[in-house]
Fold:
Amino acid sequence: MRYYLIFMLLLQLFILSLPGANAQGVTRLKPVGQPDTITGGAQDSLALSAPKGDIETTIKYSARDSILFEVGSKIVHLYGDAKINYGEITLEAAYIQINYETATLNATTLPDSTGKEVGTPMFVNGSEKYAAKRIAYNYKTKKGHISEVVTQQGEGYIHGEVVKRNNEEQISVYHARYTTCNLEHPHFYINADRIIAQPGKKVLSGPFNLVIGDIPTPLGFLFGLFPQPKANRASGVLIPTFGESRAQGFYLQNGGYYFAWNDYIGTSLTGDIYSLGGYNIRANNSYIKRYAYSGSLSIDYRYFKNDEADLFGGSRSTSDIRRQLPPSSRSIWFNWAHSPVQKPGRGRLSANVNAGSTIHQRINYNSSANFLAPTFNSNITYQKNIQNTPFSYTAKLSQGQTSSLSGKGIMNFVLPDLNFSMTPISFYEIFSKNTPTGQWYENFTIGYNVTARNEVSNLIPATGSISGGLGGSVEVLGGNRRSDTLDISTKNLAALWKNGRRSANHNFALGLGSFKILKYLNLSPSVTYQETWLDNKFSYTFDPDSQKVRVDTTNFGRVYDYSAGASLSTTIYGTAYIKGKRVEAIRHLIRPSISYSYRPDFGNERYGFYQNTLIGANETTLRPEYALLPRFNSNVPGYGLQSALSFNINNQIEMKVKSKSDSTSNKFEKVSLIDNLSLNGSYNFAADSFQLSQINVNMSTRLFKIINLSFNSTFDPYKIGSRVVTNNGVESILYTRVNEYEFDFSKLKFARLTNANLNISANLNPASRESNQRTPPQTNLPSMQPGMDPLNPLQPRYVDFKIPWTLNLDFTLYYAKALNPNDEDRIDKTLGVDGSLNLTDKWKFTYNASYNFRDNNIANANINIHRDLHCWEMSIGWVPFGFMQGYNVTINARSALLRDLRLTRNRSGFNR
Structure:
């Protein structure tokens, strides 16, 4: 009996060690190939350690239904949601067979109770995915055979009847269909007898044709090449786009090659060619260093030749701006953008350079805003804060230029622009090492800033006259009457340097702190001082022979300016308790302030900034006449004594109401009735007339959480008078301000309204009310990047279908009172509207327009329609007015991989 018990114990231990044993130690045995009828329960799983030899790692497998292990033939059967993990390989199917003898994996579907095949095998090898009805894979040779397969390669999907995979990881697909549509039955595909895919590199095909909606088309080619890079960067050919331009004829654009030198530097060399003559060559470099900096550098060279087009014939209308362009020109343009990563204690070099030939942007413009842009600015800046000190410095090079069709644009350079500054620090910290005790004098601070500049311009200004300090102008001996420009070249360097201006500006920021007076008043005194050193100072003498003023120049001059003042402010609260059904109380917040400032009359000759100069004799009385002329060409302080008292009153009104969201409790919320209502002005005691300034009244508020209202107005406290003037023997009435107040208490008239501006905007989009932000209008007509066809984006912009509708309204009213009572007052009214509407979950309609009631015209209008076609998309854009007037219809594949698979029809200001 004892031996029998030992035998039974050993038998149970042997059974529990079998692969098919469940958690209760029972092994279910069944015939090979017959599926188990049990569908529930926990998954069975085993992990067999890899023996030395063919198996490289552990094979982990599991099944929801059952696992059958044939020890003699070394075969494992997995039934129901079977799954195998072998290194980077994952295989899932309804049924999987593992044959350790032949080192193969076989996976198929299984019929359910209705006879439908379920559990489609899914094979994943790294980034490769295959879905098929039958999969056979040899994990020793790494070869496979797949039938009726769908595999994903990058953004594309390959459907095939038979797929073979060799040990070089190449995939051969027979009777293949290549598409970017992720449906089982795709909307379109490229049909080919055979496709070879190298995962992560490229997809190659033989002769193919395009099939759309199961309808074969004659569109195709002798071979196909579809790059599939694993990384975001890869070298390759850039396919050009084609189109037509009225000024340059038919063209090919943006064709060339991209060089991915490494993960940090890339270069694209592209070009354009035009049938009417001319070409364009671009070199664009991008670079990045992780945790340090990133940037791009591009050079654009264009030869514009258009002898066949009648650019100068006919009238030059605003609808045909191209007529202003010259028939032939050469231009070059540089772009450099460099952005550093902020690091404590390290200097930062940043750059934003946009410079080149002045005519380039007029020829190679890519938007109406770019064409009409008056200036282009560039700067290169190095900035550093010195750690553990209040000091910092900046070195900057900057350049600005105007665009011109004549090629004689104005260029301004600042070479260099040096700045050294010290943040305000306490006097007490400088002169005492003791701990601050809170005394009033401990709040005194001082800051310093100096800026040295060398400004050079190729513009030679007119010197025929000098503006006097008291108005009018004075003729200068030997001055020229018109401005001219110098060419930027080495031979003109001396003239450019002589035409430049050198200066050093010093600013001292003196802080005197803030003090409490009578417990509720805040007193803040202030003192300012600045001084500028200039390289030119003028002296004037009258030449009696020519009856003109002679100007003499010295090489150094000093200008300074200072002022002092103080401000007094407080805050007043007033609350009215209503205790209504919803309104609990209304609070009025008032912030009044007054300030006084004093500044001497720097027009006095004792300061040396102006010179009272004899300019001739009066033609009628023959008495000598004098003019106050500035002795510096910039940074001259204003003349006239200032002793002004300024006042400002800010108001805010809020209401406390019961919360709608929780009416059962006594919770309250604040509702703003008026966000800001302000009144401000000043009175100059030192002025001999018009001491009181104009009075400004401003208000802003938000109504019902969707309407923003702002109002700005200006009132003149002085009356309008008239006087008779004679010009060339003709008398006329001139209306001007007179030094007499409009104030009349009996008529409740305090001042005269001169101008006012009212703006009302409403955001009626329910989804964005809480965010309190306007929803920007959607448009499918973006500004083109350099080289792009107008109204024809290479990649359509993303369109959000989640928000069902948006509507933004903007109304502006401007009023200006005419001085002459016989003239009409000016009233401008404009209404702007923009928004979107989702007709269905696939259709989106966007719009944007503004209407000017004064001119009775519509400006800046565009309408766009977008249709989501799953793997395709359609966009229709229409600009009915303006320079960009035209339309655009585009149907294209959504994937960037097949971005050239599109049909476009457009007309605009570029090719209309």
About this structure: The mean pLDDT is 78. The helical segments are 2-16, 360-363, 368-372, 427-431, 493-499. Residues 465 and 474 are 5 Å apart (CA to CA).
